[in-house]
Amino acid sequence: MPSEHEIDAPSVRVWEGVLTRADCRSMIEDMVAATTVAGGVLRQSREAVDPRLRRCSEHSLGTGQAATVVAAMREVAGQALTAHPLSEVRLDGPKFCSYSVGEHFRAHRDRSADPLDPAAVRARLLSIVCLLNDTDSAGGLPAFDGGALVTHVPRGNGGVEPVNITPVAGSVVVFKADLLHEVRPVRSGVRYSAIGWLYSVD
């Protein structure tokens, strides 16, 4: 059974054991075999490649291949949502991403306030990150170092504190879509993950 815990940041929650290491290995094998494109960023409703902001690859998986991750995201979403019934939200994604040595995603927010961006992006409530590998090669998973997911959490004194999420394969991280966060540069290996977003359809 997946176990859920909060790190030292109430706005960030982590479920471990949502996927098995065998599930993760299968997803990574599908990603490696899939068509890839350079990861982009959204600007006024258009995807643009900007390696200064984001350097990674996105992998095109079919609906059947993505089903395991979609099910994991939906399972966690059902537990994470408190203010919105599931009938009032939709899942956007997942996108499957890999970060090789030196690749990164600078600090950003997943929810947009730009009126030119799609309504689904402006209505994002939660970001969901499914981590597919970690620093351990157990179970035949490729290991990596670096590439930390860092959330910048507001504190009561008006400051912001960076909080590192320790990567654990098969875990799912959920945080508010307007929370500033980043992926630090990978130092060795390749970091694999899937990302999705819950958005309101009110």
Q: If you had to describe this structure to a student in words, what would you say it looks like?
A:
With 202 residues, this protein is α+β, with helices and mostly antiparallel strands. It has a single domain, classed as Jelly Rolls, CATH 2.60.120.620. It has helices at 21-33, 63-80, 119-122, and strands spanning 3-6, 12-16, 35-38, 41-43, 46-48, 54-55, 57-60, 89-99, 104-108, 124-131, 144-146, 149-154, 160-165, 172-176, 181-183, 186-189, 191-200. The strands form 4 sheets. It has an 8-stranded antiparallel β-sheet with strand order 1-2-14-10-17-8-7-3. A 5-stranded antiparallel β-sheet has the order 6-9-15-12-13, with no helix packed on it. It is globular and about 40 Å long. The termini are far apart. The mean pLDDT is 91.
Largest sheet: 8 strands, antiparallel
Secondary structure category: alpha+beta
Q: What level of helicity do the residues show?
A: 10-25%
End-to-end CA span: 32 Å
Strand content: 35-45%
Count of discrete structural domains = 1
Order of neighbouring strands in the sheet with most strands:
1-2-14-10-17-8-7-3
CATH superfamily: q2cbj1_9rhob like domain
Briefly note the CATH topology name.
Answer: Jelly Rolls
From the alpha-carbon coordinates, what is the Rg to the nearest angstrom? 16 Å
Number of helices: 3
The CATH class designation is Mainly Beta
CATH architecture tag: Sandwich
- The helix-strand sequence is EEHEEEEEHEEHEEEEEEEE
Please give the number of β-strands: 17
General form? globular
Low-confidence stretches: none
